[in-house]
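Morning. Coffee machine broken again, so started the prediction first thing and wrote up yesterday's gels while waiting. Chain of 349 residues, entered below exactly as on the submission form.
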Amino acid sequence: MKCVHCFGAGLVGSYVARKLASLGHMVHVHDMEPSQTLKHQNLIIHQGNALETDLSVYDGVDLVVNMLPGEVGHELTKKLLDTKWPIVDLSFSEHTPDLYRDEIEKRGARVLWDVGIAPGLSNMLLAEACRIMGSLTKAEIRVGGNPTDPEGEWQYMAPFSPKDVIAEYTRPARVVRSSSIVTVPALSERHLLQVKDKGSMEAFLTDGLRSVLTTIPAEEMSEYTVRWPGHIQKFIDERDSGNLNVDELLNEWWFDPKIAEFTWMEVIAFDSNDEVMRWEIIDHGNEGDSSMARTTGLVTLGCIISWLENPEMLPPGVHPPESLPAEVVKSILDMMKENGVEIYGPNIS
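Came back before lunch.
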């Protein structure tokens, strides 16, 4: 039995904590409002502000997982650097841990960051494509979590922090064009695509490439968020008219577990010989757990398990998900399939 501290117990955090506890690990959960689903003999709940937690009182900690959203998560990661515990960081803050690379290495801290479905699994799959094909001529990621039926005014509900979704829509997107990193307006390059069993959906650029901008050699590289047609036009219209109310959006986009939903991702890579590697991932949730909680949470869980099984898996420093060995990526994909996530594409060996 290992001891893991999980900070953040929203849809994803509570899922990861419960799965870890069911695997026999002792799990401490820190959250202001812990989910009511957190019930297991191996779970210890600490209700309160995670940023005010006195970490010095805890001994025998094997690993910590930061699943707090955005800037709160960023502040927690900085605080955790003083503990010397291995850190799995899912905060998806605009301020990424690699900004503190020198400080992290100096302190001897170890951070594995962006370990969700995208970024996260998408990075791992692009790294596999590079391992097989070498430098890429084009790499594209399309991903989104959406209600199964495009109903309602927005045809959408946020499967993670609505504030982080809004940040995706407003933050300029960094992409690779002609082998150089360039910045373009978010929500640009809009286009329709066909999603299996769902029909026509719309994709648009968002700033999700992050670490792969510099770690994956490609002439062209983009990440697109996928929504039902009409959703992003409504956002643009309300933004441009000055009628966009962020507080109202937080309520209007709040996740309703009673509404059927799904998460879909496509990762596709091309090489100079026009060879193609393509993966497709889709999930519809299961047993009360949302598809985004499962797809994101299982990637995070796989990283945690691999690190617990091999404490020397990563040396001191800050590590993006594409730096993980192929055998770890394979174990993550195998676990996702075992839990009912549909994954199509080349096998990893």
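The domain at 3-117+295-344 is CATH 3.40.50.720 (Rossmann fold). Going to sketch it on the whiteboard this afternoon.
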